Amino acid sequence: xxxxxxxxxxxxxxxxxxxxxxxxxxxxxxxxxxxxxxxxxxxxxxxxxxxxxxxxxxxxxxxxxxxxxxxxxxxxxxxxxxxxxxxxxxxxxxxxxxxxxxxxxxxxxxxxxxxxxxxxxxxxxxxxxxxxxxxxxxxxxxxxxxxxxxxxxxxxxxxxxxxxxxxxxxxxxxxxxxxxxxxxxxxxxxxxxxxxxxxxxxxxxxxxxxxxxxxxxxxxxxxxxxxxxxxxxxxxxxxxxxxxxxxxxxxxxxxxxxxxxxxxxxxxxxxxxxxxxxxxxxxxxxxxxxxxxxxxxxxxxxxxxxxxxxxxxxxxxxxxxxxxxxxxxxxxxxxxxxxxxxxxxxxxxxxxxxxxxxxxxxxxxxxxxxxxxxxxxxxxxxxxxxxxxxxxxxxxxxxxxxxxxxxxxxxxxxxxxxxxxxxxxxxxxxxxxxxxxxxxxxxxxxxxxxxxxxxxxxxxxxxxxxxxxxxxxxxxxxxxxxxxxxxxxxxxxxxxxxxxxxxxxxxxxxxxxxxxxxxxxxxxxxxxxxxxxxxxxxxxxxxxxxxxxxxxxxxxxxxxxxxxxxxxxxxxxxxxxxxxxxxxxxxxxxxxxxxxxxxxxxxxxxxxxxxxxxxxxxxxxxxxxxxxxxxxxxxxxxxxxxxxxxxxxxxxxxxxxxxxxxxxxxxxxxxxxxxxxxxxxxxxxxxxxxxxxxxxxxxxxxxxxxxxxxxxxxxxxxxxxxxxxxxxxxxxxxxxxxxxxxxxxxxxxxxxxxxxxxxxxxxxxxxxxxxxxxxxxxxxxxxxxxxxxxxxxxxxxxxxxxxxxxxxxxxxxxxxxxxxxxxxxxxxxxxxxxxxxxxxxxxxxxxx
Length: 848
Hints:
By secondary structure, the protein is an alpha/beta fold. Among the domains are: about 5-220, Rossmann fold, CATH 3.40.50; about 235-355, HUPs (Rossmann fold), CATH 3.40.50.620; about 375-480, no CATH class; about 685-830, 2-Layer Sandwich (Heat Shock Protein 90), CATH 3.30.565. The chain contains 24 helices and 24 strands. The strands form six sheets. The chain has a six-stranded parallel β-sheet, with helices on both faces. The two termini are about 55 Å apart.
C-alpha cells in the first residue's frame, strides 16, 4: 500500500476559517462517496464550525488523565483500526499530553500517512519552526507549539485560507472566534492590524515560494527548458570588476517595475582558476545585491556565456543584465565577447540588457602572480644545476663520445632537473647555456657557432622548446600550489569572520588580538575620528607594541570608511595580505558599531524601564494608594465628629474599614518595596530545608476563609528555599487567584514531587489568560483584562516570580483544564545539585 496524501489548510492567524474550509472539503468528499472521518477537530465553541461537524463520522477521542485533570487527544490506534480513506486532523502543530505515543500531532499524522490514509489538516503560519523568531519580533509572543517546515513542505497540497485584517477583526468583534470576555484583550494585543498584516504577508510569501518550488519541480520533471515568465527574474552577470555595482542597481530598478521582481547576481569562475576577480570587490557587490533584496550566486563554468544562459534558464529568469565589454578594440580579434554571445544565444524567451558604464573599453588585464614560490634552497640548487650542470656535463661528454642525439637528451634531462629544482629562470639559463655548449662542442662544425646540418638545427630548436615548456609547467604548478594554500588559509580566516558575524560573539579586543596573531604583528589598534580634521582616538587595541596616534605612524594602515582605520605595528605587509586585512578591518568596524548599539540599547532600555516604572508608580500612588488612604481618613473623621452619635455597630464597621484600608496599604507598600529590592538586586535568600506544608497555610492568611484549600501530601520531600520568600510568593499567587475566581469556586493549592523538583500549583477557575499574554502578566505594573483599578498595582505576580528565581526555582502560567489559570511554582527538592544562595540581580529581573 502506498503512502497517503497530505493536504494542509494554511492560515495567517486563528479565526481565518481553516477548520471551516477543512470541514467543507470533508462534506464534498462524503457527497462523492469517499470514506471520510473526523479523527480530531476542535471547534473551540464556534457555533458555525460546530454545525459543520454534523453529518460527519467522528472517531471517539482518547481520554487521558494528567496531573489530576482529564484531557482528550487523537486516538491514533482507533483511526488506524478504522482505516478510512481520508482522516481530518486539526491543529497540526499541537503538542500531545504526556502519555500519548507521540509527543506531537504531526507525528501522529506521519503514522497515518505511512499507513496509506490521506490526511487533511490545518496549521497557522506562526507555528512553522523557521518563522519562530520572525513571528516573535512581530507579535512579541514566542510560539511554543511548532511544526518542522519540512513536514509542511512535503504536503501534496497546500491551500492558503486568506482573510484581510479588517475582516478578521470584525469577525473577532462579533464573537465568532473567541469568547466575549477575551475579545477586547485579543483585539488590542495579538490581533492588532499591524500584526495581522505582517502575518498575512508571511503566509502569502511562504505559499508563493512553495508554488515556485512546485513550478521548478514540474519544469525539471518535464524537462521544460523554455522560460515561463510567471514573474520577473533578472540575472545580473558579474565579472568582479567595478562596473558590477552599476549593473546591480540597474537590475534592481528593473525589478521594481514589475510585481514580485527578483534579482539574482551571478559570478561565473573558471574551474582552472587562471582568471580571478577581486574578492574584495565581489564581497562589496554581494553586500549590495543582498541589501537590495536580491541573492548572490557563485558558479563554476568553462564556457562563461553557456554557463550564464544555463543558470538563467535553470532559475526561470526572464531578463539578463550585462555590462558593455571592457576589452579594447584589438582584443575582439579573439572572439565576439560574452555580451554578444549571450545576446545571440539567448533566444526569444530571454531579454538581454547591455548596460554602459565608465569602464567600457578601458581594458581588463589578468592578474599574474610573480615572485619565487619554491623556497630559497630549491632556487639556489636550481641555479647551480642550470649554470654549473651544463659545464660539468660538457667536460664529461668531451671524454666519452655518445653521439649528438644522446648529447641532446642528456642536456635536456639536465634542463628538466633545473626546472624541477628552481623553476622557470634556472631552466631558461640551463637551456641557453646548454644550447650554446651543444652548438660549440658537439654540433658540426665544432668550435664554431654555425650549424652545417639542418637536422641538427631542428634538434637544438626542439631541445630549447621542450626545456621552456617543462620550465613553464613547473613554474605554473608551483604558483598554483602556493595560491591554493594561500586561498585555503584565507577561506579559513574569512569563514571565522563570517561565523563571528552570524553569532555576534567576538569582542573588539578579541578580534584585534586575532588580527595581530594572524599577521604576526606587535600590536593592532582601531582608530577613529569624528571629522576630517578631528584628532584620532583609539577605540580598541591589542598587543604590546608602541601606541599609535595616527594611521600614518603605523607600519600598516587599512582605512575603513572615511573616519576609521585599522593600524598595525611590527612589519610591513605584502600587498597580497591586504585583501584579508581589509576583511578584518571591516569586521572590526562592525563589531565596534554593534557594541555601541548594544550599549545604547541597554541605556535606552534602562531609561524606558525606569520611566515606565516611575509612571506606573505615580499612577499607583495617585489612585491605588490614595483610595485606601481616603477611606481611612473618612472613617477617622466620622469617628471624631461630635455631630453624630455613632452606635457600637457603626463604630465597629468604621473601625473595620480602617483596618481593611491599613491592611491594603500594607500589602501595596510591601509589594512596592519588594519590587524595588528585586530591581536593585538586594534580595539575598537564606536557603534552608523546610516542608511546604509548614509555609503554605501561612500564605492563606490574606484571603477570606474558605476561598482557598490545601492539598499537600505528607510524603512530599523537603525543599531548599527561603521560608519568608516562599510564603510571600505563595501569598501573592493565592491572592491573585482568589481575585479572579468566581465567588462559588475555591482556589486549590496542591503540591507534588517530580524527579528532583517539587511543584506547587495554584489553580483557579477564573476567565484564564490566552497563551500570548501568559508571560506578560509577570511584568511589573501589569493587570490582565478588565481588572478594576482598586485590584492593586499589578506587582504581585512580578514579585512572586522574582522571589521564585531568587531561590533557584521557576514560576510559569498554564491553562486550567476546563477553564481558568494555573500558576506552577517549581522548587528544588532537598538533595538536588544547585546553588544554595543567589541574589536576584537587576539583569535577571529585566527579563520579567
